[in-house]
Amino acid sequence: SLINRKADLAVAAFTITAEREKVIDFSKPFMTLGISILYRVHMGRKPGYFSFLDPFSPAVWLFMLLAYLAVSCVLFLAARLSPYEWYNPHPCLRERHNLLENQYTLGNSLWFPVGGFMQQGSEIMPRALSTRCVSGVWWAFTLIIISSYTANLAAFLTVQRMEVPIESADDLADQTNIEYGTIHAGSTMTFFQNSRYQTYQRMWNYMQSKQPSVFVKSTEEGIARVLNSKYAFLLESTMNEYHRRHNCNLTQIGGLLDTKGYGIGMPLGSPFRDEITLAILQLQENNRLEILKRKWWEGGHCPKEEDHRAKGLGMENIG
């Protein structure tokens, strides 16, 4: 309509591009923006009540149990065979002078490694060289296991919170598990089509050759595809921000891929161009445009973006 002069103005999400400037006039941009990535909120793996077992594989836990039983048996046999582990609990009683006891009963042999593993010790102390050697080996094993478990547990909790499938356009271009596309025949599609940046060229080649097509006909169709499948929608940041404010299941990945602006379109040589541009500059200077944006963009019910500072563990983390 602007090209045929059937309309005087076009006020919408109208991106200023070189191709459009050849056939119509634009005012100065009233809003700056860029291409961004819209994706659904990544929920991550929900921690279970046995998440504390995750730092070690099931095989490691099994071998630890077998090691515990083996050490208990060796300790029991070594104490029985060594004369230094036999003692008289009542040396002052003459009638019990020949009655000897061994502190490493079967129960105590099982309890002693548990105390060492929990780093609490026990009232049982080895006397013979053989039992001391077995105890020393077990304590060294316990030190390594506890240190490894503590380090791995911290790493697992950190990864569990920070795990995100994609974090930038480069991540998107380097994988094929998550599909991505944009509105067909829109300014975002033109940007990728004409870009000489290697990453964006790879993304364009993927979008162009992907079957079924990753292009959509409208923003609403793209958002529905994001919510219902593994799909990242490339669209202008203003639309991204608006829909994120009104749908808490959406999030933006990474920063902006370029910088551009929205302008008011009009036919070539329109007499209103300078007056409209002057009015836009005045609205920007008195902050009126920013106030209007906050009024309409921040009217959603979604909370603010979650920060990445350390938070306390919940019951689901510690079982």
TrEMBL record:
Gene3D superfamilies: Periplasmic binding protein-like II
Subcellular location(s) of the protein: Postsynaptic cell membrane
Site residues by UniProt (Crucial to convey clamshell closure to channel opening): 166
GO CC, alphabetical: postsynaptic membrane
Biological source species: Hypotaenidia okinawae
Transport listed as a keyword: yes
Record-stated family: Belongs to the glutamate-gated ion channel (TC 1.A.10.1) family.
Main localisation: membrane
This protein's name: Glutamate receptor
Keywords in alphabetical order: Cell membrane, Disulfide bond, Glycoprotein, Ion channel, Ion transport, Ligand-gated ion channel, Membrane, Postsynaptic cell membrane, Receptor, Signal, Synapse, Transmembrane, Transmembrane helix, Transport
InterPro entries: Glu/Gly-bd, Iono_Glu_rcpt_met, Ionotropic_Glu_rcpt, Iontro_rcpt_C
A Gene Ontology molecular function term of the record: ligand-gated monoatomic ion channel activity
UniProt keyword Cell membrane present: yes
Binding-site positions, L-glutamate: 15, 20, 187-188, 236
Domain of life according to the entry: Eukaryota
Pfam families: Lig_chan, Lig_chan-Glu_bd
Ranges where the Ionotropic glutamate receptor C-terminal domain occurs: 1-299
Membrane topology according to the record: Multi-pass membrane protein
Cysteines paired by S-S bonds: 248-302
Function summary: Receptor for glutamate that functions as a ligand-gated ion channel in the central nervous system and plays an important role in excitatory synaptic transmission. L-glutamate acts as an excitatory neurotransmitter at many synapses in the central nervous system.
